[in-house]
Amino acid sequence: MKNIKKTKIKQVTEVFNDVFDKYDLMNDIMSLGIHRIWKRRFIDWMNPQKGDHLLDVASGTGDIAKAFLKRTEFSGKLTCVEPNKLMLELGKKKLKNLGKIEWHCSPAEKLPFKNDTFDLYSVSFGLRNFSNINLSLKEAKRVLKSGGRMLCLEFSQIDNEMLNKIYKIYSKSIPHIGEYITGKSEPYEYLIKSIDKFYNQNELSEMFKANGFDKVEYRNLSGGIVAIHSGWKI
């Protein structure tokens, strides 16, 4: 099992080392640009309040972090965690003019923070890449304050048969599109496989509950192509 986890860590690192400078373009390819709408819905459901402290894990190039700051009128406190050093530096560069942000290069399974630190924990299109999802959920709960909330935006299972068929056909073309635009197909092949193998909405909800979250619920977006999961630390 440890060897499997080490292999996944190495694979994910290699994937994002390959695409870090084209990450935003990759999201456009994967979602036909709709990821911007999904992220707005994510922030809408998060509904952060002025002064909230958000931990954004697997922060990538900072889309959620930026939206959080704007929604709180830059009164919110923001900590970003990104396990990939190249992605971290890209995120820093992209958000350098948005005020004081605390940055950490760390895996989600071992966060460098004290218990009961954050009001909110977010992860957007990162959970399926974690080497140990259960451990990352335990860590999320640990660092949240009592009354804090975790939200996850992730590719999920489509609930409409026709839409699912259409999306499957499109998914098969994504590595070819990625290769044409970026010169590499392997990262996109990995990402498509990671979506196919990932938990469905109910399975992930049960994992939230098993790791101590209460009031767990989810909302499908675009027919279940992605879903937002929410859980509270009570």
Structure description:
The protein is globular. The model has no long low-confidence stretch (mean pLDDT 93). It has helices at residues 2-19, 23-31, 35-46, 63-71, 85-94, 133-143, 161-182, 186-197, 201-210; strands at residues 53-57, 77-81, 102-104, 118-124, 144-155, 214-221, 226-232. It has a single domain (2-232), classed as Rossmann fold (3-Layer(aba) Sandwich). It contains 9 helices and 7 strands. It has a 7-stranded mixed β-sheet, with helices on both faces. The protein is α/β, with parallel strands linked by helices and 234 residues long. α1 (2-19) crosses α8. The chain is 48% helix and 20% strand.
Protein topology:
Elements lengths: L1 H18 L3 H9 L3 H12 L6 E5 L5 H9 L5 E5 L3 H10 L7 E3 L13 E7 L8 H11 E12 L5 H22 L3 H12 L3 H10 L3 E8 L4 E7 L2
InterPro entries: SAM-dependent_MTases_sf, UbiE/COQ5_MeTrFase, UbiE/COQ5_MeTrFase_CS
GO molecular function: 2-methoxy-6-polyprenyl-1,4-benzoquinol methyltransferase activity
Keywords: Methyltransferase, S-adenosyl-L-methionine, Transferase
Q: Name the helix and strand elements from N-terminus to C-terminus, one letter apiece.
A: HHHEHEHEEHEHHHEE
- Secondary-structure-based class equals alpha/beta
Question: What is the share of helical residues?
Answer: 40-55%
Task: Output mean pLDDT.
Answer: 93
Largest sheet: 7 strands, mixed
Under CATH, the homologous superfamily reads Vaccinia Virus protein VP39
Domain module tally: 1
Distance between the termini: 32 Å
What is the CATH first-level class name? Alpha Beta
Q: Quaternary state, please?
A: single chain
